[in-house]
Design brief:
alpha+beta; Aminopeptidase; Alpha-Beta Plaits; 2 domains; 6-stranded mixed beta sheet; 4-stranded antiparallel beta sheet; 14 helices
Length: 422
Amino acid sequence: MSSLADTLLAEIAAGADEWIGLLQDFVRTPTPNPPGDTRSGTARLAAFLAARGLEHRLIAPQPEMPNLVAQFDAARPGRHLVLNGHIDVFPASGPARWKHGDPWSGTIDDGRLYGRGVADMKCGTTASLITYALLHKHRDRLAGRLSLTCVSDEETGGRWGAGYLFAHHPEYVRGDCCLNGEPSSAYTVRWGEKLPLWLAFTVKTRGAHGAYVHMSESASLIALDLMERLEAVTELQPRPPPEIADNLVNPQVRTALDRSMGAGAADLLGRVTLNIGVVRGGLKLNMIPSECRVEADIRIPFGLSKAQVLDCIRAILRDFPQVKMAEESIAEETHANWCDPEGEMLHLIQRHAEQVCGIRPVPIATLALTDARWWRNAGIPAYIYGCAPDGMASHDERVSLEEFLNVIRVHALSAAAYLGGA
């Protein structure tokens, strides 16, 4: 490794206590979305930059959901790298289910930091912030431009976060590559993700007294039949491009998928999945329900379009005249998003991860949606490397502190190398 890489590693080691304290304070600052008020969390990050004299600005199309951006030019012309992370996190379950009582405690226990959003993705966002500050200090040894984008509204689609920056402030986001710290685990680096299709089905019938079942169909029973029929979408056969198809059947990739996302993930990545997340129907047990609402989360793999899935569903609905369908997706795309599974930044992440922690992460796609899609859909490669998703979207969410420091190391070294400094 170059002398700049050695310098960065030494500075990361020397500042370890400060970085951990920063993450702990960030986790202790609640930023659940909904409701989506991230002002206090954004202020924590802005104070870190201000203390180092680093210029930054807040862009807030919604006052309670500000986005923090910063940018600097290096000593020589070169490429533009964007660091991206989000400030908002999932809401938290009640304290009774958390090991340390408070979901926002930021408690450190046995080398792990606990709290809602620490894995998804305050760990990664903090790593981006620190990487930006470290590389700004050594900008005279770099080429090109580095942008920092810490956004709000990722958990509800990004309309006021990354999506807003692409529409109104492209100078911060339209670079040559994006590096993101969403959860991945040390064993994977991510290059693509499935497309979510969220649909709501409303069933309406006349309804009647519960004893007079001859008087009306039951909206709830019709909904039950519909839910069973919707399983047909999981039988659709995608046709991914050859480079993606090769990745999906690679035994090493399949092992990494199951290791990072749980046994069975490898089988699901290339298939349509259906989750019936919400069912609401009826007013009273002795009334035949006149209305029932069903909300479905469908994830579309590579090689299959949203239009193809909707065609399948519309064919099913021809047998259900009592049902109306509405799309409620947070993503407006028509296909799953991806970039080159053999891209330059991906290889830099692999190289530096192997040097830092002795693990060469496997390139995979993922099941869930992230802000990386905004870059990929704009034709800009975007890669994800972050902490393991331990407890993500559940209670006792946590990250290993050593893994957190390793993510900082890998991001800093990979960003420096991409900008010609290592």
